[in-house]
Amino acid sequence: MSALTGILYAALVAYLGGWYTGYWSGNFSLLLFILTVVTLAYWLAERFHFQPARARAAQALLDADAQRRQTLAAQGISRVDGDVEAARQQILQQPWWMDWTAGLFPVILAVFFLRSFLFEPFKIPSGSMVPTLLVGDLILVNKFHYGVRLPVINKKIISNNEVKRGDVMVFRWPVDTSVDFIKRVAAIPGDEVAYLNQKLYINGKPTEVQPQGDFYDESSMTYRPRFLEKLGEKEHQMLVNPQAQPIFQPNRPDGPFPYQDQCKYTIEGVRCTVPAGYYYMIGDNRDNSGDSRFWGFVPDENIVGRAFFVWMNFGNLKRIGPFH
């Protein structure tokens, strides 16, 4: 078993090393599931086989020592050498390969449960959600807000809250589901959404927008106009650069996106009708966001959860707190 455990750990290190260096993409949910199953197998083996076997061996040692002492006592020998208790403790001691498998099972199980059904941490890698979220923000995602989903396959088994316009959502990118994206929900199934001349329209009505002065973008070291937008029930900040002249067109390496015929692209922008079971996502940094305007709708089965809290930013501790 020690050799098998060594092989498993070598495979784990190789997998993580290749993932880290970019030789292949990893699936952390699947990896965590496999680790939970493997450590569970070791825990069960320890609980019902190896631990009882060690206990029997230790008891056999005590019985043999007691028998030996009884035999020697019958011969008039009362002083007997040998530290049987030290040998007993050595027999009962859990081997290293059990410490690093069965011993880790409760911790891995707790992490698997918390991450799969309650909350999952994410790091903001790009500026597409500036000014709401900055590069380097470490955020928490509520995994059960929209319903309970089975780990790995992401199959919803219990429904909860409906997706609302204005929610900040983490989802699996439709182009490559191994990659997680974070954007704001602009439109829900049945909505007609349009982004024309740098203005967002929902069902024919422009969203309410109020100027908020300039925002200093540290990544580009430039000032850009900031606005307060009401999308759904809550307001949020967003950036639009009137001097930019964006051109929107479908941009999917795998070809047309599902229901692309529901969208119309013009020189002014794009207009779409959101199909059932899909959502239209947009970044708060409107001129620096790859979102549904380019690669299409997000299906319900790609939803990971609702982002709601910045729990750390090592460069700016004032960032810690809820957001919307």
From TrEMBL:
Keywords: Hydrolase, Membrane, Protease, Transmembrane, Transmembrane helix. It comes from the Bacteria. The keyword Hydrolase applies. It catalyses: Cleavage of hydrophobic, N-terminal signal or leader sequences from secreted and periplasmic proteins. It is found in: Membrane. It is an enzyme of class 3 (hydrolase). Its EC number is 3.4.21.89. It holds the Pfam family Peptidase_S26. The keyword Glycoprotein does not apply. It is a single-pass type II membrane protein. GO terms for cellular component: membrane. GO terms for biological process: signal peptide processing. The active site is at 128, 183. CDD domains: S26_SPase_I. Residues 98-312 form the Peptidase S26 domain. GO terms for molecular function: serine-type endopeptidase activity; signal peptidase activity. The chain crosses the membrane at residues 28-45, 97-118. Belongs to the peptidase S26 family. PANTHER family: CHLOROPLAST PROCESSING PEPTIDASE, SIGNAL PEPTIDASE I. This is Signal peptidase I. It comes from Kinneretia aquatilis. The lineage of its organism: Bacteria, Pseudomonadati, Pseudomonadota, Betaproteobacteria, Burkholderiales.
